[in-house]
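Example 3.2
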Amino acid sequence: MNSVIGLNIVRFIFLLLLQVMICNHINFFGYINPYIYVIFIFLFPIREERLLFLLVSFVLGLMVDLFSDSGGVHAAAAVSLAYVRPILLKNSFGMQYEHQSIKIRNTDIGSLITYISFGVIIHHLVLFSLEIFNVSKILLVLKKTLFSSIFTIILSVLIIILFSRNKK
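Structure, written as tokens:
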């Protein structure tokens, strides 16, 4: 088995278990929840087939939905994030993405934070819009999106830095 495939399988299982066993039980002030399973979507290899990537993202979101009993909102948000990821990569990393030479451990922290931030905000906006699904509660959607995004961005950046930076 290819080491990249093995790494992605381990990452998929680890982030899924971390999400459903720990993060789904964190609920600050009733509306702040971390959704760190999106790290898998951010770190999925760029050179892989796009249809495979969308399918794997759907399965990841569906698994989170099954464990969370959330009716498909995570699957929709995960596929939405996977769909817009090429645009996020191009806007955050520029020429590195054009040459498909992005290595997270070699990128500058500003580009990484930009990439993660926009992706998490898009994911959370879709997630909470579908979860609440009421135009009259748009302020609640925006409040949950903002505060959960801040918490998720901080955790995601810390996890990515801790597990992908070279030890010096």
